[in-house]
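User: structure tokens for this one?
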Amino acid sequence: MLHNFLIVLQQVIVLFILILIGYFFGKRRIFSAETIRGLDFLVLNLALPCTIVRGFQMEHTAEMMRNLLLCIGFAALLQALFLFAAMPFARKMPRDERAVYVLSSALTNCSFMGFPLQSAVLGPLGILYGSGYVFSMNLCTFTVGYYLFTGDRKSISPKQILTRPAIVGTVLGLALFVAGISLPSTVSTVVDHIANLSVPLPMFIIGYHLSHVELKTVLRKRLHWRFSLLRLVVFPVAAIVLLYALGLHGTVLLSLAVSASCPTATAVTIIASRFSDKGELSAELGAMQTLLSLLTLPIMLAFTSLFA
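Assistant:
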């Protein structure tokens, strides 16, 4: 319990320092709205795909492949359940606001925050199995997420899905993993450098949006607390119990539990900024949940250990 708490504490402190940098740059007007749009594009179209490809760069066995497929399948199940469970709580909201609250409850920071935790707690296998969750979440983010904001069914057409950079990166990473192909040293180094941008840039984006809101007001919003409770407590507990009931245990269960227990995905703020004027609302939820996860994540991991 103490070990997991210290891991989470260190990771949350790092993320909040990065958020504070973005906040400072926003307050000093070093970052402008155009700067943030550029960072949004860079993260979604380059940094995130490289992060995914890097996650699959390891040797594998038949058991690892089986467990990875299990993670992908069960992660997809959890995404669907989270979305349907959150919808009734936001049904009377305007479309863009509903999209932010629903997605912030269903989608998690399973790559930027989940990977470091899985690596520290479970080692390389944790990251591999965590990549399965990221794969399913990316499909959800760049299909259902886009649709909830735009209302355009074309955003979930096969052509649109397969041309999303994050999906292309996932398919490429999986193909290399299955084939047992490692990237050439030079290419791998380039991919690593670009992938490393996936941690600071989203935090800068959140910090920028927070520089335009009153923080005291954020903590007084009951809706924020309601949907944060869903994301950080209700949904993780339900997911852990369900996965255990379906026969999962050990590293697979722990890895999925970490992914399902993380605060809301930074991708929600990015797509909210791109398709609506609700980027600040999403940033509020992201920062609030990241702070609250300092308490909830160790508890969720300890709870999972009772079953794993």
